[in-house]
Amino acid sequence: MKKFLGLSNNQKFDEAMKGIENIGSNSFDEVKISKSIDENSKYLKMIFENCYDIVQKKFKIGSEQIDGFIVYVNGIVDKNFVTEKILNTLMTESRLTELEKKINKNKLIEFANKNITSIGDTKKVYTIQEALDNILKANCVLFIDGNDNALAFNIKTYESRDVSTPITESVIRGPMEGYTENINTNTALLRNRVKTINLKTESFEIGSISKTTVVICYIHGLIDIGILKELRERIEKIEVDMINDSGEIEHYIEDSTFSPFPQVGVTERPDTCAAALAEGRATILVDGSPFALVVPNVFAHFLTAPEDKYNRFYFTSFIRLLRYISFFISLFLPSLYVALITFHQEMIPSSLLITVASSYAGIPFPAVVEAFLLEFTFEILREAGLRLPKPIGQAVNIVGALIIGEAGVQAGLSSRAMVVIVAFTGITSFAMPGYNAARIVRVFRFLLLVLGGTFGLFGIAIGALFILVHMASLRSFGVPYLSPLAPIHFKDWKDLFIKFPSKYIKDRPTFIQKYNLRKRN
Amino acid sequence: MKRFLLFICILLTLSLTGCWGKKELGDISIVRATGIDMEPNGDIRVTILAEEPTGSKETSASMRSSTWIGSDTGSNIREAMKKLLSHSAKRPLWIQNQVIIISEDAANKALKETLDFFVRNREIRLDNNILISKARVYDLLQLPSSVQSNLVDYLIGMIENTKFWSESYIADLKTYALKYTDDYVSPVTGSIDYYNTTMKTVSTGRESYGMLKTGDSDIGIPVVEGCAAIKKDGSIGVLTYDETQGFLWIMGKVKEGVIEIEGPEYNGKLVMININSKIDKKAIINEDEVEIVLNLQVNGDIGIDTTEIDLSKDTLMKNAEKDFSKKIENQLRATVKRAQKDFKTDIFCFSEILIKKHPNAWKSMESDWENIYENLKITYKVETTIHRMGMLNESLYQ
Predict the structure, then answer these.
(1) Which domains occur in chain B, in start order?
(2) Where along chain A do its domains lie?
(3) B interface mutation test: which of A354, A356, A449 has the most B CBs within 10 A?
């Protein structure tokens, strides 16, 4: 560095340059923008040494030929704006005005801001640090000789996906738009659905390196102040260098880090977020992630699908009951089955027992070992198929499911009944809309299998009790995890196991906030 | 973290205990019927019918398991059962046992022991069906099953059928044992026997169908006939079908069933079906005498009508109803008489009425109940109503 450009004359700047090794520190806070444009240029060149994508373009302004330069990051600013609105206006169009002759050269930045350039979102910066921040946030910063401040133009353009159908939460009926990686698009999608001045979007900057924008959205007046305060505090407390996805934010703001149950909802649907906001919940959008977080999120929310609100209540109720049942099946079926056939044969009807028993004659493994092998195989297949490209993934699944299953039975390694049980359990685990909660069920299934295989129903009862006690002790931003079941909020049961017609659900959920309950006046 | 590790360690020690009470399906044979016989030398013979899965990949249920008939003797039931293990390939489990058959001999001499064993045994359910066999159970349980995949399914089917037949009654273990331990009443359950016949029930595949008539295949067929009650002296008395129906009237258990009347005034038969009955038992106490009043209400439909009378006429219908009532009353009388004079035990639970409704009077009767019962005066009030005539409103012959 020193070899290349040498030390500057500014002591403060030199000190700040030393601090550059300390990643994330704002060491240039103290360094004011110099009146000398050469100095500024030199500073920036030193700071952005070995940065291929930083563009510094020098030019002369107007007929007076005043020195100036702009700095921007190549690729994330709109080049049309740079050429048309900045370079063109300053270099050529300003000549026609002849105005700059009358004004003080030192106020040229101010003048350029107000009179020459026609860009809406501009900001004046006074220190090098501010200039740097703006450059990195896709602003184009203009320096003019003789001015001790610079002008940042927000002309961000950002290569991102178009708004498309959410992949993880597709619906048959309902909005088909999903969030993208661009936070501006995301907030726009949300604002488009919630057109009230009460929709607040507070932004935070997280990550010393990534400087990721994190926006919490809520409806002022609906959200519980305590929850909001807690949320702000938790987000402000995050100290990390890199945030790539909202999943990382989730880890920092959840109530219980060691609980296997997720306490934050995840969605990539603006309509789900909007509905959550209207219930008095908050949404966290993270730049670069199409997944928004929703808090507070109780367990019942994981069994609620976005479509529930749009379908008629009979069907919704039926499907929701089905989901609850399949949740219990996917959690307990293999362990219950193993417990019944190794410990409690008396609980199976005679004819069924004989059928099941006949499929066990000649099987070399105990039932619990067999269940373990099959469950492992299933999970491995699932994981293997997930990461592969789609066509190969399907092949893996077919080979796995059909060939291994059938061949295993033919070879006498596993019983038909167990294959049926494992396959059915596998399918039921897909019926839970909250994917992040459904995954934990798969882990618990193995634990319960051990308990069921060693202690029978007794073990399963103990296991279930542990899970329940743990769930009852959990909280999501102060809201008990099992509410409205425990503690009981009977009023909210209208939308728990079965859904009442929307006409008759007049109040917002009482377990989230208590102040503004009526949906209409 | 340390606490967490400690917790895991404690959890791991649990797995050291192994699996208590683990019974892998491949290692057990499922006992479905148990028979108790009395050997001439006073030993008890236990015969079991157990299903053992063969693991055959056949789709039909009958091919997927084989039935094991095991039998052994011992000075008591427990011993006989333990001895069974000496020639069993798998561990017999009684958890799915559904039928208990006791030979008359064994019922006479060792009923106490038998019931005690079954009720005490943790593996036996209280809803087991109890049957008393005239024949040796050892032979009975070796009959080939002609319809079902094995004899037990066949027996279970027969037991289920008795509910729609009303001429036999099969008690479950709980009721039977409760009545047996009651000092004043005597338990009743179905009586089973078998006949060597080619006539009664036949089930066969197409190939062997032609051979049935020609061959002298004496297939043994189990038959449930009437009810077995325990007489005063402990021996077994069997109620005929008719008497069983009489017994079931009094117990209020007649459902379905068939009653026929005929007579010169009808010049044909009149048969009632779809019977429903309701009984109201009362005791009237006049000074020293006890009188039991049986108020029986019967209703049903006409099932067969070959008479020449027009039943749509009210008076004629009333007459027919009265005749049905009379027929039923006779049935009741015959049954009660048999129980009072022949068995000399209270199979109708009359004592229960007295204990519940007249506790004070009962106290004086308690010691002398057996004599009082034998001479108990019983009043019968039977009322029959015919609801429907079936698809025909009048006899075909009119």
Answers:
(1) 26-238 (no CATH), 253-386 (3.30.300.210)
(2) 2-154, 183-297, 309-480
(3) A354
